[in-house]
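Ticket closed. Logging final result for Monovalent cation/H+ antiporter subunit D.
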Amino acid sequence: MSAVAIVLIVASHRRPNLREGWSVLAAVGKFGIVASMLPAVMSGTVYRWSLYESTGIRFLPGVDFALRADPLGILFALLASFLWIFTSFYAAGYMRGLDEHAQTRFFASFAASLSAAVGIAFAANLVTIFVFYELLSLVTYPLVAHNEDDEARIAGRKYLTYTFFGGGVFLLAGTVMVYWLTASVNGDPTLAFESGGMEALATAAQAEPGFAQAAFFLLIAGFGVKAALMPLHSWLADAMVAPTPVSGLLHAVAVVKSGAFGVARVILDVYGPGLIHDLPLDVPGIGEVGLNIPVAIVAAFTLTAASIIAMRKDHLKRRLAYSTTAQLSYIVLGLSMLHPYAMVGALFHIPAHAFAKLTLFFCAGAIHVETHTDYISDMAGIGKRMPLTLSAFTIGALGMAGLPPIAGFVSKFYMLIGSGYMGGEYWIFAGTLLLSGVLNIAYFWPVVYTAFFESEDRHDAKPVLEFPRGGIFESYGAGAEGQKEHVAADGGPSSADRSGSESESESDAAKSNPAPAETDDSGATDADVEDDDYDYAVDRYPSDADVPAGDHVSAVDHHGDHDDHLTGGPPAGGWPRHSPIGESTWLMLAPIAIIATGAVVLGVVPDHAVFLDLITHIVEGVFGVDSFDQLQGLSLEEALEVMSE
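Final structure:
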């Protein structure tokens, strides 16, 4: 559906309403098709299509371009297609609100990205998932580099280097090794996914354990690039230069989740928990450890380190980017613990994180569109300007911290139960989960506190860490006696000159060093409006008399220069007070409210939400049981024994 929509979107480039209508219709159609398969899949049906069976064409013996809709694939496809519906509306409001250029290319690339993401979800083997995995990197490049400035191009090249070349090479190498290993069993190679692991690979691993171990880590590294596992994570924060709808859906759902989904495929459907547990590494000085332990250690380190880094970021989207890096590692950590409960928690965290993080990104985008404010330290009192948006942000933040009644609590609770049943050295991972929850509160609470409990004239710096690598003591109370003016709030250049800080050169230069402005009769200045926002301002406020007091958006185009950014932060006199329904356009507010509500629903009634039922069905298939009740109360060894039987 979304692939067909690409043609229609491009053909409607002169009619924006029709162009964006195609995006919405394709999103609804795609979700409808995916949802229509759900009842049968839950009953045990697997939909399958094969190029070889249809045309007789295949790449190599055992290598076929094939698609299948199984429970794990439906989980990812259902989530991505459902959230695309609301992101289509939000993207229209965002792009129109900023009067962005190249909107046709943007919506066409967006549709292509959803096609590639669903291709990953429905891939039936390692070759098919590799094709769509690489295609996703290519079609999202125009979105990452959308701004077309030096910063965006550098971020786009870095994104391709990491995900297309780096991740693709690792994934291809691992795929080739799996092909060779399965061919060595009886000369009949296979790369097809099998719930619980590939039998041919398990047999080959007994004869060639070293190669099987190498292939496992290559596959994890290939998918780990998009899952932002450290040290393969730095592309994600730089990609935040993309428009916020891209950061939201593609970097909270489609792109990064494709990496986490790939890790799930490797652990659940290529190697399987049994083979991973029974194919240990001999570590000098430690002894034998399962293949899952190194992956779990990397994930635990990533979620802790990324949370600490997020604490020192003053730029809101970059704080959210490092939060994403941490949250994705929850999924990898839960999967790598191998216990059924931990797996349920990890897989449930895919939709839980998607709903909460999409809410957070939507809120960040709405704040940028309405106030051109990107730095947390400039948001003191902004809650009265955007009460609904910041209330939704609070809900998303609670979900990220794993607090009830938001969905993130359910997923992390399952993972804690799983680590408890594991016992032994796995208690350290339970401790990591609890510590990360505290760190999540530490870097999200300042945003909420700043918005609702501080005033424009009395506030402090927002990065939590106060030392040279995290912030400077003088960042509190700048301008007070004995302290320096314009000191850094996040360990970088000062607020008076952020032009080199956090890859936000143009935005911060315009913000910190505005050109001299002339005031007209209405009180608006040249810095208040730029050409790119003129049409939006006219639609919102037909005349200067309609501009709310204190709002720094004018309906009059006072200059002909393109600064590309308005100044952020509160206007003179403080933030104007707005009602929740009047703080932005319905195109942006409705998706924010709906997605935030979805995060609550998933947390309050998970048993009645389709995702938890689907996930328990996935885990039942992996361990070969008829009911998840058969796995309750079992240790990992007991669960694997049930699986082998």
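The radius of gyration is 25 Å. No further action required.
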